[in-house]
Amino acid sequence: MSLIGKKVESFKAKAFHNGQFIDITDENMRGKWSAVVFYPADFTFVCPTELEDLANLYEDFKKENCEIYSVSTDTEYVHKAWHDSSERVKKVQYPMIADPTGKLSRMFEVMIEEEGLALRGSFIIDPEGVVQAYEVHSNGIGREASELLRKLQAAKFVRENGEVCPAKWKPGKESLKPTIDLIGKL
Q1: Among this protein's residues, is 47 annotated catalytic?
Q2: Which of 3, 8, 37, 47 is catalytic?
Q3: Mind listing the pLDDT tens digit for each residue in 26-63?
């Protein structure tokens, strides 16, 4: 079942952010775009490379009025310990949400029940809290933050312009206006 068009349900979770433990709720996602990125666990192999990649593009996401939230089934205490001990994860300035009960992982349909871990899932949520794009895959495949950023930019463009984005579209590139005249001409 697709999550596209579904509103993020009400939730409250602890997070590690900028040296502090904070609460994050669905209300934090209102009024701006959000990129919610699930990963299996702290102190693993692929995960720190992904979080570092997101950290390296964090300013680009912020320029798009988008907050990044990373989520795993670890606690906020484990997030802090990992942040303090990993050179890659030390670069993270976005909130690292703790999901030890798996509530968020189940809500976004990425929970691996028999392992108590989340699949690698990336979700783009609009300012009203509605899922506009997502991708979920097995945990051995690392993601590229620049592609998530491109998808965010495309989702924003479609929303703001009412046009659609062809394959490999990037800001400033040609978009498509869906009209009857285009049918059969592409």
Answers
A1: yes
A2: 47
A3: 999 999 999 999 999 999 999 999 999 999 999 999 99
